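Page 47, continued from p. 46.
Same chain as before, 325 aa.
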Amino acid sequence: PSDFGSIMYASMGLNNGQNFADWPYFLQSPNNANISIAMSWLYKIVPNWKGIILIGALLTNLSAVLAALSVKNITKNRYTSIVTLVLAEILMGMNWRSFLVYTDNYNMIFVALIFWAFTLEIRDGHKFFAVTFFSAIGTFIKPTALIGYLSILIFCFLNLISNEKTKILLKVKKGLSMLVVMSVVFGTMIAGQNALRSYYGLDLEGQYPKGWQYMLMVGQNYKYYGVTNSDDPQIREEYIAQAQAKNEDVSYVNNKLLEEGLSRILNRGIWGNIKFYVGKLNVAYNDGYFHNLQVYPPSASHELKQNLLYQLLWKDGGNLYQVSA
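Result:
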């Protein structure tokens, strides 16, 4: 089954006493083990997959509300926050992936909570703990939550070192306090993750799971603009075969995949990378808001011909991505 299907069946199975050993998929994609564990807990409360879909949709909409509240906290303007909420709801209504039970869907609420907590007018220590706490939970679901957290850390660091009124000793004290909070919260999350994976039978010993190095390589594929394809898995399989022949572990494969990914970036040059990322951005939009326009070729009889978005975005037989990339 697909990633979505594997998560769905695994969450139901884990709830019924099975473990990850029953799904070889997770030996290759352990990144989706955490969301499967979380879904199995949710399945105990809502023993109906439609209910879980509705909960995901609710969380997505709550994310939009939190985003609007964050804007209000920053601008102090109620109308700006209302406009933000309306735009968010419109965009989510256009994107069918907004309601797909997957890591993106269930991680969004924590990303929204990170920025909402950061915009609250509370004590800095309490604020930083809340931001770190929500970031750790979000990272447990999907590591991309770290992007928002890192942006806040950079902001805090620059603000700390640029504040001339704060004494150096106090700056060091604040910096060390932040480091301690990060270490404790994320250390607890990682320890909990490892314990849960072990409890549910996810054993990666001697396996060659896909790591971030593989994702980087796939993401830099110029031919497919980073979309999942059939070429890159073959490259990975070749490196796995080499590792097995040399009796090497997964680190050998990951290093080779990292080299391949970095070489793709370097070989494109500056201008080549600019064009690549413009095309990659358009692919990302097509994969969500305009996904149907990308998949289905233009046809006079196709029902999408009656769709307003279809009429606005199709031009000379090409959609947004095909025209601009």
